[in-house]
Amino acid sequence: MAGRFAPRTTRTTVRGGQVAVPGSVPAAAVPPGTVPSGAVPPGTVPRQASAPGRVRRWTPPWPLDLGLVLGPLRRGAADPTFRATSDGAVWRACRTPAGIGTLRVTLRAGMAEGRAWGPGADWLLTRLPELLGSLDDPAAFVPRHRLLALTRHRRPGLRLTRTGLVMESLIPSILEQKVTTDEAYRAWRLLVRGYGDPAPGPAPGGMYVMPAPRTWALIPSWEWHRAGVDDKRASTILRAVRVAGRLEEAVGMEPEQAQARLELVPGIGPWTSAETVQRSHGAADSVTVGDLHLPGIVGYALAGDRDADDAAMLALLEPYAGQRHRAARLILLSGRTPPRRVPRMPRGDIGRL
Fold first, then answer.
1. Which of 39-53, 95-109, 198-212 is predicted with the least confidence, judged by mean pLDDT?
2. Residues 68-112 pLDDT 10s
3. How many whole angstroms separate alpha carbon 297 and alpha carbon 294?
4. For residues 34 and 321, what is the distance between their CA atoms, to the nearest angstrom?
C-alpha cells in the first residue's frame, strides 16, 4: 500500500491520503459564478496548457475534491505519470486502448474540465466522469462507528476513482510487493523514465507514459537489478505483460471476477489484485488483505487493537460488507493510527550489489 503524495508515517496512508492540489477547491465549496482564490479565471488557460487539445467540461452534481479522488493514482512525489501543478491542475499520462494520451483535469467553480492530447485523448475524455467518481455510490456507505461518520462528514469530496485501465495499476502494485514505499517508487520512476514514451502535448517536463507490454518484456535483466527489482517481482511483471490483453479484459468484469483473473498469474495474490481493482474498477468492497500495516491500523481505530491480523480486520469491517475498502480509506483519512514502537523498515537497494 504505497502512498501517493506527502511523506507518510506508514505504507498504507496513501490509500487514505490525499494530494494537495494548489489552487483547487472542492466543488461544493465554491459559490456559483465565483472564482477560487489563486485559481485561473474561467476562459483562460495556463501557459503550459496553451497548445490545442480536445476539451470536455462536466459538472458533477455532488462535492468533488480532486486531491482525494485522484490521489491514489500517484506513485510518489516524482511519479513521471502523474503531476499536480501550482495552477490547481492534475495531469495524467496514460496508455489507453486507443494509444498514449495526456489528460489535464481542473476544477473551477464546480465544473470539471478535462483537456487531452495524443491518440488516446478521446478515450480519456469519454471516461472523465468515471475517473472523477461518477459510478461511485457513497450513499451506500452507512457509518457504524463515530470515527467514520466524522471523517465522512469532513471529507464530502471523496469519491472512488475508476480508471478503466488494469496494467497501469497492476505493474506498480507488483513493484510494491514486500518492499518499502521508497524502493517501489524509485523502481517505478526509473523504469518508466527509462523505457516509457514522453507524454504527448504540453505536459509538464519529465512526464512519461508507462511502457507498452512488449517494451516491459524486453527490459534487460540488469536494468531490473539497477532499479532495485528482485527476480521474483520482475518475473511476475513479465508473466503479466505476456497476457496483458486478457488482463485488460477484466475491466468489464465485476471486481471479484477481475481479481480472480488477475490471480491466475503466478506471483499475483489477493494483496496485489485488490490494490489494482481499487483503482481500475473503483471497487468499494475490495479491501486489501496481506498488508503489513493495514490490519493494525483498522484494529486500532475501531477496537483499540494495534495487533489485529487480517482475520480480526475483516471481522471489524464485516458491518461494512460491500463498502469495506471505503471504510478502510476513511480510517486512513481520519489520521487515527497507532504510535510507532519500532524503527521503520530499512530500505534496501539490490542495485548496489
1. 39-53
2. 999 999 999 999 999 999 999 999 999 999 999 999 999 999 999
3. 5
4. 40
Tally of structural domains, the chain: 3
Residue 159: which of 82, 90, 70 has the closest Cα? 70
In a domain, 342, yes or no: no
* Other beta carbons less than 10 A from residue 344's beta carbon: 12
Distance CA 199, CA 222 (A): 26
Residue 160 lies in a domain: no
Using one digit for the tens of pLDDT, what is the confidence trace for 133-164? 999 999 999 999 999 999 999 999 999 999 99
Are 64 and 87 found together in one domain? yes
Domain identity same for 136 and 115: yes
C-beta separation of 203 from 91 below 8 A: yes
One domain, residues 200 and 233: yes
Contact 190, 313 (CB under 8 A): no
- Cell, residue 153: 462528514
Domain assignment present for residue 211? The answer is yes
Identify the domain containing residue 263 by its residue range. Answer: 167-280
> How far is residue 242's CA from residue 15's CA, in Å, rounded to a whole number?
28
